[in-house]
Design a protein that fits this description.
By secondary structure, this protein is mainly alpha-helical. It folds into two domains: 194 residues, Orthogonal Bundle (Preprotein translocase SecY subunit); 237 residues, SecY subunit domain (Preprotein translocase SecY subunit). 68% of the residues lie in helices and 5% in strands. It has a three-stranded antiparallel β-sheet. Strands 2-3 form a two-stranded antiparallel ribbon. α5 packs across α7 and α6 packs across α7. The longest helix is centred in the last third of the chain and has 34 residues. This is Protein translocase subunit SecY.
Length: 445
């Protein structure tokens, strides 16, 4: 306890770190405040239909990422997701289109261009999703739309929703520039955490209603949740260290290189993207739920407790893990960077043999990482089968838990870096905290 208090005092004594924490908390408070401001022309007392519909599938995921703003018809209902979609699209384009790759390799100026194109694409994506949300409100929340405002609702709502998403995007960028951690990731995490107290109380009340034994079951659930979080931390921070030697260089009277370092290859290089892709694919059959021939398939696809759903979901996650890792991980570029910096892997020739060796090592560690990621993805379904309420079960795995753990690790890593720069002890005695932000390309340089 004394060590913990000393660490907090050290954190608060650093002016720069204290300023970053205050700015981050202030902007997050503004975001959460905006999530409770209802769209013009909506009666907030008649939104029960939206809350009941946004519990599963893609709508449930969107509502979770927006902290409940989607089901509350807030001005921030679309949240940061249009920006995320635009960013993923631009990331894939920089991999698939050679011209985009050239722009990305231009350094800071190229990255500035890509960021600007991402913002323009965000506006387009938001407008499309905003009109879809208007249709959604007219179908399910038509009783909540005030009659005197219904004639203007289709025009004002897309404008307000687009402005709200751009405001959230601006908040995220300000947190990244002036605050602590990645602003976009923090905003998503705060939206997910906003559901935790209510889900916690629902699970507590459900177990209390079963009698005295329910309290013991609840304690066991919390213990299992802590164990899952600890395992997930190991998965996120797990790396395979490939030894790298650098040749000695004599420049004047000084010697450069000659040191032995390690190339950290992450077990879970794909992050949360395979689970997001898998959820999107599993949601597609639910679009045809109204047809009699596809009704059974849609029911299986929308029920995370179904064993067939779990098997298909796990296979998709494993497949997308390999696919996305192959897209974002370039062994050839890493081998070229090593050769350019006079680095080599002991026993492996520079150039293409090095690229082949790094690729083979990455394939070997991606396989267990993909299986573990698939297990994490289907854990909420198992939790529901064991009697845990749907809201609380979502925190036992899946996208929510992965994002929460990853963002918290990233933020703690930045805090620890600030402490070590000023000669303070780190946050842990056993070693350094590793977040998701450490990339292979940065490690090589």
């Amino acid at each position: 306890m004394k060590k913990f208090l000393t660490t907090l005092r050290n954190i608060w004594s650093i002016d720069e770190l204290r300023s970053k924490i205050v700015v981050t908390l202030s902007l997050i408070f503004v975001y959460r405040l905006g999530a409770y401001i209802v769209l013009p022309g909506i009666d907030p007392n008649k939104l029960s239909a939206l809350s009941g519909n946004a519990k599963g599938g893609a709508l449930g995921l969107l509502d979770a990422f927006s902290g409940g703003a989607f089901s509350q018809a807030s001005i921030l209902a679309l949240g940061i997701m249009p920006y995320i979609s635009a960013s993923i699209f631009m990331q894939l384009m920089t991999i698939l289109i050679p011209q985009m790759q050239k722009v990305q390799k231009e350094g800071a100026s190229g990255q500035k261009k890509i960021n600007q194109w991402t913002r323009y694409l965000t506006v387009v994506v938001t407008f499309v999703q905003a009109y879809a949300y208007v249709t959604y409100l007219r179908n399910l929340g038509k009783d909540a739309i005030i009659d005197s405002f219904s004639a203007y609702f289709w025009l004002t709502t897309p404008i307000v929703l687009t402005a709200g998403t751009l405001f959230v995007m601006w908040l995220g960028e300000k947190i990244t520039d002036k605050g602590l951690g990645n602003g976009t990731s923090l905003i998503i995490m705060i939206g997910i955490l906003a559901r935790l107290p209510r889900s916690f109380m629902q699970e507590w009340n459900a177990k209390i209603a079963t009698g005295t034994g329910g309290i013991l079951v609840f304690v066991i659930e919390i213990a299992v949740l802590v164990a899952i979080i600890m395992g997930l931390i190991v998965l996120i921070q797990g790396v395979r260290k490939v030894p790298v030697n650098y040749a000695k260089q004599i420049v004047g009277n000084r010697q450069f290189g000659g040191a032995r370092q390690f190339l950290p290859l992450k077990v879970n290089a794909a992050g949360v993207m395979p689970i997001i892709f898998a959820q999107a694919i599993m949601f597609l059959p639910t679009i045809f739920a109204s047809f009699e021939t596809t009704k059974g398939i849609a029911q299986v696809a929308s029920d995370p407790r179904n064993f067939i759903h779990m098997i298909v979901y796990a296979v998709i996650v494993v497949g997308f893990t390999f696919l996305y890792t192959a897209l974002i991980f370039n062994p050839k570029q890493i081998a070229d960077d090593l050769k350019r910096n006079n680095g080599f892997i002991p026993g492996v020739k520079p150039g293409q043999p090095t690229a082949d060796y790094i690729g083979s090592v990455m394939d070997k560690i991606t396989l267990p990482g993909a299986f573990l990621l698939a297990i994490v993805g289907i854990l909420p379904g198992f939790a529901q089968r064991l009697g845990i309420t749907q809201g609380f079960a979502s925190f036992f795995g899946g996208t929510s838990l992965l994002i929460m753990v990853g963002v918290i690790l990233d933020s703690l890593q930045q805090i620890e870096t600030q402490l070590l720069m000023r000669q303070y002890d780190g946050l842990m005695k056993s070693g350094r905290i590793q977040g998701r932000s450490s990339s292979v390309s940065n490690a090589v340089i």
